[in-house]
Predict the 3D structure of the following.
Amino acid sequence: MSEVTKRRIFVVDDEESIVDSLTGIFNSYGFDAIPFTDPLKAFEAAQVQCPDLLLADIIMPQLNGVDLAMQFSDLYPHCKILLLSGNANSQGLLAIAKAEGHNFYLASKPAHPRELIETIESMIN
């Protein structure tokens, strides 16, 4: 019997409660979700094993999600990227990324878990 490989998702948000909630939800839907509250740690972990999808909050103190996404996109072009934002200021960051040739999927916070699951499944399947 062959074992089905779980799709790996890196969940990056500076708010621990959000990371824990999303990771639990994604794992319950059969994904291998790995939580990160530090975007630099997620980037380091990708160097060992890149995820199928990066889900990152846009507004974070150390490294914003758009910059993290651009680095992932440049180094790991097969990795899908979904950004989360509940902040109007994130549109400016997305415009900068788009001007540099990056076009990322965006979901608004708060997002219903089922909507996130459907979006992720359509992106990585």
In short: The chain has five helices and five strands. The mean pLDDT is 88. The CA atoms of residues 66 and 94 lie 7 Å apart.
